[in-house]
Amino acid sequence: MTTRTTHSFWGLPFVLSGALAAFGCQVEDSEQEADDDDVEVAEQAMTSSEGAGDITAMSSYFAEAGGVDEAAEEIESDVESAGCLTVSHEEDATIFEFDECVGRLGFLSMTGTLEVAESTEGEVVTYDLSTDELYLNHWEIEGDWQVTANRSAEEYTWQGSVSVTGPHGWEVQKQASADWSWDGTCKTFSAASEVEGRRGQTRTVEVDEVTRCQGECPSAGSVEVTFPGGATLSWTYNGDDTATVTGPRGGVFDVTLPCAY
């Protein structure tokens, strides 16, 4: 049996949206006349994508755990505060109610409801997920998304929309689709997403066949980010803990991946 590390439940699919909105303003709000600026933006982008670029993180519990009951056990083992999660079964859905559940590192607290409906057709299991007043710290998460799992082939898909609203009304909205598969302990991941951040500005992210084995940096594939106004930032993983980056102004340079340190 192949042993893999479960995705942290706290790596929620909206986090990349916030990260992109944060570093994206450097592209649109500055002239970026120095090469160092491009390098800094690229490093921030790759740090964000390594930490939260996998938009399937929250859904992987359901897609890869074997079902909602197994997913509940995984989630309960991933929180510090015992008894904060209540799981109930209705006729056509399973309800996860979080009451100030704190993550393993103690930084994040979740409160609210996640509803999961499970259906099976042949080898494919489908999970429909939706939120109800779900808060991560002071951020409200609203969304509906669907995950499919062909476990015999170890192939999975994700599609849906998520919005995050901060305590001062700052909002990020994201629509995305993704597919991923496993080969032993190596995962290959592709995705397309559109992120609408502050002032209605939209960024897109295209992830193409990024492969990463557990305990290693990504070894193949590429990522392209398009910012408001049309500027693009892209990088290709070289397989040696580096990536070749094409900056917003066309400069090409190599960057050591944050996971290599």
Rg from alpha-carbon coordinates: 19 Å
Structural class: alpha+beta
Helix content: 10-25%
Provide the succession of SSEs: HHHHEEEEEEEEEEEEE
Low-confidence stretches: 5-35, 50-56
What would the principal axes of the Cα set say about the shape? Answer: globular
Mean model confidence by pLDDT: 76
The helix tally amounts to: 4
Strand proportion, as a percent range, falls in over 45%
Q: How many distinct beta strands?
A: 13
Tell me the major beta sheet.
13 strands, antiparallel
Q: In the residues, how many domains can be counted?
A: 1
What does this structure look like?
This protein has 261 residues and is of the alpha+beta class. It has one domain (15-260). The chain is built from four helices and 13 strands. The chain has helices spanning 15-29, 35-52, 57-65, 68-76; strands at residues 85-89, 94-102, 109-121, 124-136, 139-150, 155-165, 171-183, 186-196, 202-213, 218-226, 232-237, 242-246, 252-256. It has a 13-stranded antiparallel beta sheet, with helices on one face. The longest helix is centred in the N-terminal third of the chain and has 18 residues, at 35-52. It starts with 14 loop residues before the first helix and ends in a 5-residue tail after the last strand. Mean pLDDT is 76; it is low at 5-35 and 50-56.
